[in-house]
Here is the input.
Amino acid sequence: MNGRDHGGDLDAAVAQFGGVRADWIDLSTGINPIPYPLPNFSVESWAALPDRAAQEALLQAARAFWNVPTDAGLLAAPGASALIAQIPRLAPTAQVQIPGPTYNEHAAAFSAAGWSQTDGNADAQVIVHPNNPDGRLWTASALKAPLCVIDESFCDVAPERSLISSAAQPGTLLLKSFGKFWGLAGLRLGFAIGPADLITKLAEMLGPWPVSGPALAVGTIALQDTHWAQETRVRLARDAAQLDDLMTAKGARIAGGTTLFRLYEVAEAAAMRDRLAQAHIWSRTFPYSRTWIRLGLPPDTGWKRIEAA
Here is the structure.
């Protein structure tokens, strides 16, 4: 199975191309560059163990925001990655189908748990919806394995395409990432939605107090702020279109993506990555493609630098 390679490795870029982190615009991830504004934290959020009331408030806000089926369980975790690492332990080791190319942590997690990967019928199946990096969207008809994982880490930009209605089906788990759409990846907050038996097992694997007090507080407030979410979707769509215009004017071809990241086909992706890096702009290339380069959206102050580079 594939190894791990990720965006966000800005330290490596700094070491190779110089400068300091503050000099750089990091477009190698698909994280919203204008994050949700942090509220004021109480001292208790930092000093006390997270209490049950705070955990329940977060889960209620999540249920309302994502229209979680009433008969589906819901678990908050310290990031979607923590859930991805545990999911292969929910079933006996066998074969998993992970249509790719896609986010490689799923394959790495199943491989570490002793699973083998297949392109045919399997005992487990993972679909990334929308897919990273090409933005491919799936339908519920694709779910065919006894254990199905739907990774919706980037689906909050297109909630109408969510497969949340499938989350209560036996053997189905749907994952949500808070850090990407709300731009707070460092908060480490993610969710698993699915039938009660699987959610209970995952909760036991994570142990008590998996989510920090500050993360509970921020997540509860942000998930209730539907006005911010609606405005953010409009802004992301506008900025994604602007980035497409800029890149296609320079000869790139749109190969896919979402409104949090754009995938382009160019003659030599590594050469474009290095050219951007000379201007201290970091992008994402892929070991399996010579021509694909992925760019996240820049902050408002970054557009002129990107165009110049």
User: Anything to note?
Assistant: The chain has a mean pLDDT of 96.
